[in-house]
Amino acid sequence: MVSSTEYGSHTWDLLLTVDHQHEDVEKEFLLQVTGDLHVGGLMLKLVEQIKIAQDWSDYAFWWEQKKCWLLKTHWTLDKCGVQADAKLIFTTQHKMLRLRLPNMKTVRLKVSFSSMVFRAVSDICKMLNIRRSEELSLLKQSEGTLKKKKKKDKNSKEPATEDILNLCNSPVSSGLPANPGLYSKTMTPIYDPVSGSPASSTITWFSDGSLTEQSCSILALSHPTCSPEMLAEMYQPRTLADKAKLNAGWLDSSRSLMEQGVLEEDQLLLRFKYYTFFDLNPKYDAVRINQIYEQARWAILLEEIDCTEEEMLIFAALQAYHVSKLSLSSETQDSTCEPEVDEVEAALSNLEVTLEGGNKSNILEDITDIPKLADSLKLVRPKKLALKAIKTYWFVFRDTSISYFKNKESAQGEPIEKLNLKGCEVVPDVNVAAKKFGIKLLIPVADGMNEVYLRCDNEDQYARWMAACVLASKGRTMADSSYQPEVQKILSFLQMKNWTMCSQAASEPENVDMKPECFVSPRYTKKFKSKQLTARILEAHQNVSQMSLVEAKLRFIQAWQSLPEFGLSYYIVRFKGSKKDDVLGVSYNRLIRIDMATGDPITTWRFSNMKQWNVNWEIRQVAIEFDQNVSIAFTCLSADCKIVHEYIGGYIFLSTRSKDHNETLDEELFHKLTGGQE
User: Fold this and answer.
1) 466 SS3 class
2) Per-residue confidence (pLDDT) for residue 258, from 0 to 100
3) Do domains 11-92 and 372-478 have the same CATH topology?
4) The domain defined by 569-675 carries CATH number 3.40.50.720
């Protein structure tokens, strides 16, 4: 018989498992609880039962069946839905995780397994001294990208201990709140302009001292030794479908690591997910610049992004230069002592740069006077049977449109055709050695894309017209302050390619430890002999030999950003009403529907024309509405639709950033834009 008082209390037994390291203490405890007991009270009762004197502040309940954390300690068990059959594990929220960085180094550190991934990545970046954490995320390598490596890696699953950088003693790792020392507004860490490593007097500003000088050097400096054998073992995408596999494993930023099946000591990839590198500053972004450079380098070596032979040699020259310069600078660093930097002087000089701003421009002139371009260019129209009609016309570029006329005299009348470039795709078609300066325009029309080729006569003309086309595609005119910098960027890239103009022979090749197979993708090692590659890389090397190490990295990143495919993440999708699969390319400012068989773009939709987007979670379909009553819907076949939805919302979120150094990230806005109200 049960007494009335006992019956009225509604107590029931709850089995709790404690994840602790004490072997002589039992791990399972049976507690009598009631539905109105709050989670915090349950924790207190359990700790009293365990009778181990230790800090339990990092512990929380993990609900095994529901795959969720019980973090709201004021909620009652009834409100949480916890009943007698619930399996609750009392475990630490911060656990060890291995992260493979873009430079292929593995770091081991403590990460919050209970925070949303967006917050966890922010904490990781503070530990690694990487600003703008919102550009990065965590990636699980998909099964498809691991298949090639399985045979060789069967017996060597664990990476060698010496390759792992242990950062587990950092305060952030231990679950303590991070001091914002890294983001100090008055003190800016100063870097050596040659090596890119931090000056000794500023090393203490890094992540509350969790990074030693040696650790920081590993993250901020590249040691690129990559054998052809190592490249052959790595996953190299051959088709658009292969490239889609690379983006299938992004973790959901709105859920925790534990909720997504990540376990302690698992290995994930830390990568730049969003290709909008905001406010890159060599003064205090040594680690960030190096990791972006490394991600770009591996993307080119593994042919994740296509480039021409001419471009591949430029990338190879910058890498080869990087290696020789690095070895030289490390030797000089060993023999000379670094001068101490006066912190106040450093802060004042930084303030001076900030107050001076960049190049001054006449803002009123920008507003009132919209420039135009007028030139004689060749128009190339693709015709059937691979024939091309090439004819010279008089072209006028005004606002965001190009008009062309029979000749200069008829420019006052009606044009033969007017091309509106807003929302078009602009693809460079350049071979500097052959004096070919072409611009390929893919202009959206009702039934797809209209192809137009423009041929320029020289580098200067090409740079001006190309920059105008790029801006017009984004809805901006030449009056925009970014026009001149865009022209200069294009000219500097062309100058790097133009090594044939240098009359000097490749100097002192014996002094360069050149292994050309390490600097180009396997396709080019098969195409050329080693000596041929060495000679061609050294020719290209002459144009970059005067740069500082950080400048060489920035030039590499800039050249990578100039590639037509830069920043595109691919997914295999099925559009509503379509009977075949297509590839969807997601970029920072647009979506592109691409024919899976030919690789040709079919349609482009700009984010600037987007009215709203959402997900039908029942049928896993992403629906997007644009201006002028254009709407699209698709299901994602190569990844979860949440990944694509988060990509779109993430890019919209990043476009709201400003250069205010006091700005704190609006996490709530990020989750509102990327969550999809699931």
Assistant:
1) helix
2) 96
3) no
4) no
